[in-house]
Specification:
Strand order of the largest sheet: 6-7-5-4-3-2-1-8-9-10
Structural class: alpha/beta
Oligomer: single chain
Radius of gyration: 21 Å
Number of strands: 10
Helix content: 25-40%
Mean pLDDT: 86
Low-confidence stretches: 25-36, 41-47, 212-216, 256-269
Bound molecules: iron/sulfur cluster
Strand content: 5-15%
């Protein structure tokens, strides 16, 4: 397995229209079920806003190291808002340093960048941070002054990283392809990136130093036209990239609730074999996730625990990932079958044909 998503908090300081983070109803919070889950049952949903306790985080990070070499600190939420974020980086470094056989455990941090002026130095100082992804598409919905200030702080971080952490991968994400209302922001952002990295001057003209360069030589101004479905990533400088992609829709489980009473259970697979919608996914092969309350779920889109496989405080991650339910879902993906009702409501998996 490549990575484990650990949702250290589901709190966020932004309210993107496309994200379930701003849509949860606190009143609907139930205590998470700890009974053994089966396919076709809908687990209780906890909608509270929570920071993961330190002890639970330590359990998660230690368990993650047994099955993967990379972690993420989000499912929903903005990880740098966690009051223990700095301590969690230190714990990650300790766990990574304790790995044997030359292995390590590294963090791919995804952040909205709104706190990067405060936590940037700690991130750059941590050798366990391998990559930082900035969700700069989130700024398209902010008042312009606020968005521009956030972007400036992110670009300051990028320049600092290029100077003192050239090994760090940075992705400036624009995951809003197809949303025309974001084009004005995207154009502004690319212009600022071009200025920050000397591709154009402040007047918007090609820098003198770049005038002899042509497209493909990596120093021309980056524009929206450079991106397409087969060319989603553009190198800015060193290991700093702009990454453009379409907006994905979070599965809402509507198919799950619609079909849950007729959904196949583990027991029903014995004699008459049900048929399933076609589809596959890399979840449980390349990654899994642990929610802020310790529930282990199949993927980083399952923010409400619709595919709860177990609880990290009760079983090891390896045990949970080899449970009958996880095994069945994984076998389904291998056979191009979406066996879990929640997966049947997921459009993200249509990317994997
Ligand atoms: S910044 Fe990220 S977690 Fe926060 S609301 Fe936007 S998409 Fe959701
Ligand atoms: S199909 Fe969708 S909901 Fe199911 S595991 Fe994959 S990403 Fe998650």
């Amino acid at each position: 397995m490549n990575g484990v998503y650990i949702e250290i908090t589901d709190v966020c300081n932004l309210h993107c229209s496309f994200c379930p983070s701003g849509k949860r109803d606190k009143a609907s919070c139930n205590t998470p079920s700890r009974t053994a889950p089966t396919i076709g049952t809908t687990p209780a949903v906890c909608a509270s806003r929570t920071f993961m306790p330190t002890e639970l985080f330590e359990r998660c990070i230690t368990e993650a190291a047994t099955v993967a070499d990379q972690v993420y600190f989000h499912v929903l939420g903005e990880p740098t808002l966690h009051p223990g974020f700095g301590r969690f980086l230190k714990k990650l470094e300790q766990v990574s340093a304790a790995q044997s056989d030359g292995k390590s455990l590294q963090l791919n941090l995804t952040t909205n960048g709104t706190t990067i002026d405060r936590c940037g130095k700690a991130i750059l100082a941590s050798p366990a941070v391998r990559q930082v992804n900035f969700s700069t598409h989130a700024y398209a919905e902010l008042p312009f002054d606020e968005a521009a200030e956030n972007l400036q702080n992110v670009l300051d971080f990028c320049r600092m990283a290029a100077a003192i952490r050239p090994d760090l991968y940075i992705n400036l994400r624009l995951w809003n392809v197809g949303d025309e209302s974001s084009n004005a922001w995207n154009n502004y952002m690319l212009e600022q990136v071009n200025i920050a990295f000397g591709r154009i001057n402040a007047s918007g003209e090609n820098s003198v130093a770049n005038q002899n360069h042509v497209v493909g030589e990596n120093r021309v101004p980056i524009t929206l036209e450079h991106f397409c479905s087969r060319h989603k990533s553009f190198l800015v400088e060193g290991r700093i990239y702009i990454h453009q992609d379409s907006r994905f829709e979070w599965p809402d489980g509507s198919a799950s609730s619609a079909t849950s009473t007729n959904a196949p259970t583990l027991k029903s697979l014995g004699s008459t074999r049900p048929t399933y919608p076609k589809g596959t996914c890399r979840a449980l092969d390349t990654h899994c996730a642990i929610l802020h309350d310790g529930r282990v779920v199949a993927c980083c889109l399952d923010h409400s625990g619709q595919i709860t496989l177990g609880h990290i405080q009760e079983n090891s991650l390896a045990e949970i990932l080899s449970s009958p339910m996880a095994t069945e879902i994984r076998e389904g993906f291998a056979n191009h079958e979406l066996r879990h009702p929640f997966c049947q409501s997921c459009s993200f998996c249509k990317r994997f044909k």
